[in-house]
Specification:
Layout: E1 4-6, H1 7-14, H2 24-39, E2 44-48, H3 59-72, E3 76-79, H4 98-113, E4 116-119, H5 132-145, E5 155-157
Parallel strand pairs: 1-2, 2-3, 3-4
Antiparallel strand pairs: 4-5
């Protein structure tokens, strides 16, 4: 059995902010709790970004959590923010399909922080998302070709 630190669980314990940007002191408390969890044996970090409060967490927060995991040498498993063409995770005016945007954001975070990333799954909800499947698979394949994805483990190793 390998236990992961849950982003939402840490946030609920260490922060009074339920949605959106946390004050710096609360974020640091969350990051300290994540570090402590790694020190006590947690094998990685888990993001449930398709659910509250993760779906409302800003990229800066996710980057900070990823950086802590990277420094500890721990992977990040992620259920991405958006599964549909449009979702409550992003402003309606965002022109790019939200599921494509969610994938690109996680791949970019892995690249910026050096964290090993495990994508829990791809889901394309509704017929409008089906045409985006090829684009998402192509983007992931590009990461493989550039050495950012370990084909054996399914982890994205930026």
């Amino acid at each position: 059995m390998a236990e992961l630190v849950g982003h939402a669980a840490v946030r609920f314990v260490a922060s009074d902010t339920r949605r959106g940007k946390m004050p710096p002191k609360e974020l640091e408390k969350c990051l300290d709790l994540t570090r402590r969890s790694f020190d006590e044996g947690a094998c990685g970090l888990s993001f449930g970004l398709g659910y509250d409060p993760g779906m409302y967490s800003p990229l800066e927060e996710l980057e900070a959590f990823c950086a802590v995991a990277a420094k500890a040498g721990k992977p990040v498993a992620v259920h991405m923010k958006a599964l549909s063409w449009m979702s409550p995770c992003y402003p309606p005016a965002t022109l790019k399909a939200h599921n494509v945007l969610a994938l690109e954001q996680m791949l970019d975070l892995a690249g910026k922080t050096g964290v090993r990333l495990q994508l829990s799954h791809f889901i394309f909800v509704g017929r409008r998302t089906w045409p985006t499947a090829d684009r998402c698979i192509h983007r992931l394949s590009e990461s493989c070709q550039h050495g950012n994805v370990s084909k054996d483990s399914g982890e994205i190793c930026a």
